[in-house]
Each structure stands twice: as structure tokens, then as C-alpha cells.
């Protein structure tokens, strides 16, 4: 099969439902938009990186992506089901990361998730629930080919950094509301008002906790993680898949 003959031109959008973007890069520059079933062929080319973005994909689409990168069944199962805890796990030579996202929708804090599959020559993001599009991340990366040329490591960092930054307006809005309520005359605040204050404080603590997790994850060097996990896998007592429980 001549892979190049079926490549979608770089200036044409990917329109399949659930696929936000599917592109291949070399030396930090986009070569083309591609179909999912071409991802493996492009990934195998030296110096090429495939970057796929999905939004609430169905299982057939996830299965198609799984075949291209030999993703582990357990990781794909998790990516198909939202409400996962933040975590980073190793499956073979790849990583599976779950990051919590947050944004304000009106006066309500909405939480979502981003699941990331990362391995040599590829990164796949899967967004669930409340989550700002990663189009700005892709545009920012493409505007700096020298940085993007670092490959999947840099893409991973850029996405996690974007997630962390998006917590800031949520935190600021909640903190302003809490401070305004606490300045009210205590005698004039109804019992429900006090409950609201406690709920707001709980939200602040929860969001801060998630922000610290993201700060930890974004400074984690992906190459060091892979090297460390590879050492563990050489241990006969180790396992390539984490225990479930």
C-alpha cells in the first residue's frame, strides 16, 4: 500500500466524529493530516511523531487507535470510561496518564478528564467532560518547531502545562467568592450561607490538590520515566502491567 497516496492534505481538516485532529510531524513541522489507520505506518518512519486528539470517542474509534499503537487493553478500557483517578501507569514501552481538568461553566465548577497515551513516536489525547480544546496547545507547539522537534516528550509537557494553567481562573473566582462571603456580618449570614462557604473552601482545597498533582507531572521528564520503568521491567519479579484494585 502506498501510504502517501491516501494522506489528507495538511490544510484539510479531519472530519471523522470523535477525532479533533490527527497529524504527523517531522523536525517540529507538520507533514500532513492523516487517517487513523495510517498512524502506525507514519510512526514507524524515523524522526516522525504522530499526534492524535480525540474528544469523547466511541469504543470502535478507540479500538482503531489501539491497533495502530498496540495499546494495552486495560488502558483502553480506562480511556473508554470517564471518572478515573489521576494517575500515571506504564504498559510495555508506553505510558498512560489520567489528568483531571476544571473550568467554570456559569457559576458552576465542571470537572473533566484528559487521558494520554504516550510512547515512542506518538501521543494520543482523549478528552472527557468539561475540558478546553487543546487546539491552542497544538497551535503554540507548531509556532515553535524547534521545541516541537523534541517530539512526544514536549507535546506531553505542553498539554499538562495547559491543563495546570487553566486551573488559575477557577481558583481565582472561587477565592473571590469565599472572601466576599467571609466579609459579611456573621449575624446576617443564614445557615445555608455558612454551608456555602464550607463548600467553596472544599472546592478550593480540591482544585489546589489537583493543581499540585499537575505541577508534579509536568516537570517529570518523560525520558527518565521510561528509563526507570524499563529498569523495573528487566527485574524478573516485575510486571509490565500494574495491578488493578
Q: How many individual domains?
A: 1
**Portion in strands:** 15-25%
Number of helical stretches of at least 4 residues: 9
Distance between the amino and carboxyl termini = 43 Å
Write the H/E string, N to C.
EEHEHHEEEEHHHHHH
Instruction: Calculate Rg over CA atoms.
Output: 21 Å
In the CATH hierarchy, what is the architecture at level 2? 2-Layer Sandwich
For this structure, the CATH topology is Beta Polymerase, domain 2
Q: Could you name the CATH class? A: Alpha Beta
Q: Supply the CATH superfamily name.
A: CorA soluble domain-like
Structural class: alpha+beta
Please outline the major beta sheet: 7 strands, mixed
Question: If you average the pLDDT, what whole number results?
Answer: 76
Helix content: 40-55%
Amino acid at each position: 500500500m502506498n501510504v502517501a497516496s491516501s494522506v489528507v492534505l495538511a490544510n484539510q481538516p479531519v472530519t471523522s466524529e470523535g477525532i479533533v485532529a490527527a497529524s504527523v510531524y517531522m523536525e517540529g513541522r507538520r507533514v500532513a493530516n492523516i487517517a487513523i489507520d495510517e498512524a502506525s505506518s507514519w510512526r514507524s518512519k524515523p524522526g516522525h511523531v504522530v499526534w492524535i486528539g480525540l474528544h469523547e470517542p466511541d469504543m470502535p474509534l478507540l479500538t482503531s487507535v489501539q491497533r495502530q499503537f498496540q495499546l494495552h487493553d486495560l488502558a483502553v478500557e480506562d480511556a473508554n470510561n470517564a471518572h478515573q483517578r489521576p494517575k500515571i501507569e506504564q504498559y510495555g514501552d508506553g505510558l498512560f496518564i489520567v489528568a483531571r481538568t476544571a473550568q467554570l461553566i456559569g457559576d458552576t465548577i465542571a470537572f473533566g478528564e484528559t487521558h494520554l497515551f504516550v510512547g515512542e513516536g506518538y501521543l494520543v489525547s482523549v478528552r472527557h467532560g468539561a475540558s478546553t480544546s487543546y487546539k491552542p496547545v497544538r497551535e503554540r507547539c507548531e509556532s515553535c518547531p524547534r521545541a516541537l522537534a523534541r517530539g512526544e516528550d514536549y507535546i506531553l509537557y505542553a498539554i499538562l502545562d495547559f491543563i495546570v494553567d487553566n486551573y488559575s481562573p477557577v481558583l481565582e473566582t472561587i477565592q473571590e467568592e469565599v472572601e466576599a462571603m467571609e466579609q459579611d456580618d456573621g449575624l446576617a449570614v443564614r445557615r445555608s450561607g455558612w454551608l456555602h462557604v464550607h463548600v467553596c473552601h472544599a472546592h478550593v482545597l480540591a482544585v489546589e490538590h489537583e493543581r499540585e498533582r499537575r505541577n508534579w507531572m509536568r516537570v517529570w521528564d518523560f525520558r527518565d520515566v521510561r528509563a526507570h520503568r524499563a529498569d523495573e521491567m528487566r527485574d524478573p519479579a516485575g510486571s509490565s502491567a500494574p495491578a488493578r484494585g
